[in-house]
Specification:
This is Transglutaminase. Pfam families: Bact_transglu_N, Transglut_core. By secondary structure, this protein is α+β, with helices and mostly antiparallel strands. The chain folds into two domains: 106 residues, Sandwich (Immunoglobulin-like), CATH 2.60.40; 170 residues, C8orf32 fold (Roll). Helix content is 21%, strand content 39%. It is globular, with a radius of gyration of 20 Å.
Length: 292
């Protein structure tokens, strides 16, 4: 499946910004199931400095700095991506017991396992506590296959939590998300990661895009697609398997990966600092269109 993804972000400022420095994770990354065929990253006004590099996790990062006064800022990421997904619309019948996976993470010196170990630890937005551990326990019953346990956890989050874009911000602690059972995709991803890590397992945060389809007989609205977040869990000898708790799905062709890391702080779509600006308005539009 091939897609063209256009992500446009526009800021308008009440006062001139004299200087800004920004970092973006907005272009699809290369991985075993996905290839970014071509991509452009443009900024208006033209930056004085613009660079591209690969971060610690292998994600593509665009850095730019604007050093002249400006009252608007527009960032456009335009890419074409092909997905040949080895992911599972149905999970494999067999996977090791989650306790066995935990033991492997604790003792194995295999390179893939060593790389996965950092995703067992707490991270800036995902800290494990007693309440999160307790919430995870019904899914992680003794000797249960890890993928079955994680799918059960995904189903519980999807069933028991309400999608509410007005309840949280990115800094809302997981304790409030768990207590009120409300949030958005970032919250559900962080919650699921915390529950998995509470059992000594490795889980990472995945950022990207989700293709949305209009109701039958209606045309798709431009700009109606969205940035999205989901998770992946590590299984020795099988690799990383993705789960989308917001939609209760095993991600396949409609999920386009831009970056992954320990949590949102590692893969923020756009972040930076500005001098001046006063108040601002923000408009974001995302279009994910099939090319075949």
């Amino acid at each position: 499946m091939k897609y063209r993804v256009i992500h446009k972000t526009h800021y308008g400022y009440s006062d001139a910004v004299s200087l800004c420095q920004n970092e973006a994770h907005l272009l699809p990354r290369h991985c075993v199931y996905q290839q970014c065929l071509q991509a452009t990253f443009t900024v208006d006004p033209t930056p004085a400095i613009q660079q591209q590099h690969t971060d610690f996790f292998g994600n593509q990062v665009n850095y730019f700095a604007i050093q002249s006064p400006h009252e608007t800022l527009t960032i456009t990421a335009d890419s074409e991506v092909e997905i040949q997904y080895p992911g599972f619309s149905k999970l494999p019948i067999d996977s090791p017991a989650w306790e066995k996976v935990r033991e492997t993470l604790e003792t194995s010196l295999d390179n893939d396992v060593l790389e996965a170990k950092e995703f067992v630890l707490d991270s800036p937005f995902v800290g494990v506590d007693a309440a999160l551990t307790h919430y995870a326990l019904p899914s992680f019953t003794p000797n249960r296959p890890i993928l079955d346990a994680v799918r059960d956890l995904m189903k519980r989050i999807f069933t028991e939590f309400s999608y509410d874009p007005h309840f949280t911000t990115i800094v809302t602690p997981l304790s409030e998300v768990l207590a009120h059972k409300r949030g958005v995709c970032q919250d559900f991803a962080h919650l699921m990661i915390a529950c998995i890590r509470s059992q000594g397992l490795a889980a990472r945060y995945v950022s990207g895009y989700l293709e949305t389809l209009p109701p039958p007989g209606q045309e798709k609205l431009q700009g109606s697609d969205a940035s999205h977040a989901w998770i992946a869990v590590f299984v020795p000898e099988q690799g990383w398997v993705d789960f989308d708790p917001t939609n209760y799905q095993i991600p396949t062709y409609q999920h386009i990966t831009t970056a992954w890391g320990r949590d949102y702080s590692d893969v923020t779509p756009l972040k930076g600092v500005i001098f001046g600006g006063g108040t601002h308005t923000l408009m974001v539009s995302v279009d994910v269109n099939r090319l075949d």
